[in-house]
Amino acid sequence: MFLDDRHLTRRRLLAGASFVLGLGLLPAAAAKKTAKSRDRADEPSSGTALPIPALVDLTPGTPYELVAQPALHAFRRDLPVDVVGYGGTYMGPVLRMRRGDTVAVRVVNRLARPTNVHWHGLLVEGHVDGGTSPILEPGASWEASLAVDQPAATLWYHAHVHGSTTQDVHDGLAGMLIVEDGVAQTLGLPSTWGVDDLPLILQDRDFDDMGRPVLPPLTGNLEHGFRGHTPIVNGVADATARVPGRRVRLRLLNASGARTHRLVFDDRRPFHLIASDDGYLPAPIELAFLPLAPGERAEILVDFASGPAALLTEPDAHEHRAGGSVALLPDVLEAPARLVAFEPQRDQTNSHPVPKALVPLPDLPESTLGIPRRRFELRVSPGLTAAGGVAGHDHSGHGAMAMHAATPSPPPRLTINGRSFDMGRIDEQVKLGTTEIWEIVSPDMAHPFHLHGAHFRVLSEDGGRPKLWNGGMKDTVQVENSAELLITFTRKADASAPFVYHCHLLEHEDGGMMGAFTVA
Ligand code: C2O
Ligand code: CU
Predict the structure, then answer these.
(1) Which tops the pLDDT comparison, 9 or 322?
(2) Contact 426, 518 (CB under 8 A)
(3) pLDDT digits (tens, 9 = 90+) for 297-311
């Protein structure tokens, strides 16, 4: 719809090529390595035992205190370093809420920096959404009353101070949030926390010699975003998890700033996708590969009856396009890297079957004629040089090197419809209760588009049908070239605390690729 056929064909070829390349690079010995005998009964044979964040059930009544505070944490074995998080850990507990409940959370800031908390994917009104206001100064606190009314899903929460979200999430200000509605039990899905229902929060870091994660200054990473050499899961590198030797449910959350996690198992075993961002799919989808962009979630069922396997993240080469030229920028990862090695244990419980059907989705409209549309163009434009000229894009494939060149290029301009985010400006006004189609266009590169306060269905991607894994309810979607999103707005937000839409590549968000909207 937005592109000529030649472009589409080339893109398909490109995607296919990287897929095959990934196959060739898979370490065939990885699965065997994890089967090595263990020295100690409670220690995995290699790597670090995957930590499982505490599960906290929020119930109506006394507010739950979510305290943002410093903590000590070891990303790599025996190298504890200073981090931040909620409640004294790197990141925070998994907060579980039941549909129909109204729960209160008191966010307390015991950090030296201003902070706030946004409930990503939770359908609540603007004044408790935490996306723009209030900002809590050190020592301050804020109580949010959250009326939970949406289907079961794996969501998350994270700091959302404009301009410092990249650093804050990197440092640990993020956690998982789960909405439950009883459907998992009805469907017979694995639901024992930390046993056959595992949260996997995926990130990537670079570490110094002391084991401290290092994030280069934002300004140097505005165009491409930071990608680390070391994948971490639930805060640890080289994670190993003991699992029962049967079907297990994994709740995947991409909490990386810029990396799209391109997920495969080392033995290419298929798995079943059962839920995307905001709930179950109508039926499980069998896949052997799943890309998860920053901010996205997915729930999958994996069978460990057939032996050990490692979940890998494939190199995230990303495309930049400018003035008819296209460059494929290589990732810092040269080969698929391990996220978690799973070690199945013998287990008496019968394996949970893969349900035939899950939860039906509402019908899509037969025609989109007459549905109001808005168009959003996400741009990464060359910055202006001191002389007033336009700087060229860095297409050398060596972004970091170019950054240290004698004449550094000015930072790119990150805009939506030609404007960078302005806290004092309302960009769009939406009528409460309406359904609209938002056309998202990303001419320069792929952007994970996200909006607050509403969920959507993907109607089309790049002028064609949505990708297999984008058919369900979503709040974040990787827009390669273009996408049409069908959005119903059911939660209010006024100009004092508007919702925002933005790119979830955190450097782009901080750099201004964001807009504000009211719903009334
Ligand atoms: Cu996950 Cu506006 O954020
Ligand atoms: Cu972006």
Answers:
(1) 322
(2) yes
(3) 999 999 999 999 999
Cβ pair 452, 129 in contact under 8 A: yes
pLDDT recorded at residue 407: 57
Q: What is the pLDDT of residue 17?
A: 32
Cα separation, 446 vs 8, in Å, equals: 14
Residue with tokens 């899905």: 189
Share in percent of the chain as helix, strand, coil (round to 5): 10, 40, 50
Q: Which ligand is nearest to the CA of 121?
A: 1
Residue 170 Cβ inside 6 Å of ligand 1? The answer reads: no
Between the CA of residue 444 and those of 9, 213, 509, what are the distances in Å?
17, 30, 16
Pocket lining: 118 vs ligand 1, CB cutoff 6 Å: yes
Dihedral sign for Cα 82, 84, 85, 86, please.
Answer: positive
CA distance 214 to 206: 6
Q: How far apart are CA 26 and CA 309, in angstroms?
A: 12
Residue 353 is classified by DSSP as P
- Give the full edge-to-edge strand order of the sheet including 64-74: 80-86, 64-74, 102-109, 141-147
Fill in the amino acid letter for 100: G
Residue located nearest, by CA, to atom 3 of ligand 1: 120
CA distance 3 to 310: 38
User: Does the structure show a pLDDT above 80 at 10?
Assistant: no
Distance separating alpha carbons of residues 44 and 353, to the nearest angstrom: 27
Ligand nearest to the backbone CA of 447:
2
Banded model confidence at residue 43, pLDDT cuts 50, 70, 90? low
Out of 88-92, 167-171, 385-389, 491-495, which region has the weakest mean confidence (pLDDT)? Answer: 385-389
If one counts every other C-beta atom within 10 angstroms of the C-beta of residue 333, the result is 21
Q: How far is the CA of 165 from the centre of ligand 1 (A)?
A: 9
Percentage of the residues of the chain whose pLDDT score is greater than 70: 87
Residue 414 alpha carbon to ligand 2 centre in Å: 8
Query: Which of 32, 7, 116, 17 has the alpha carbon at shortest distance from 452?
Result: 116
How open is the CA angle 515-498-458, to the nearest 5 degrees? 60
State which ligand 1 atom lies nearest to the alpha carbon of 451: 2
Provide CB contacts within 8 A for 192, sequence distance 6+. none
Cα angle value 404/407/408 (rounded, 5°): 55
Q: What is the pTM of this model?
A: 0.89
Please state whether beta strands 261-265 and 290-292 pair in parallel, antiparallel, or not at all (unpaired). Answer: antiparallel
**Can you read off the two tokens belonging to residue 164?**
């410092």
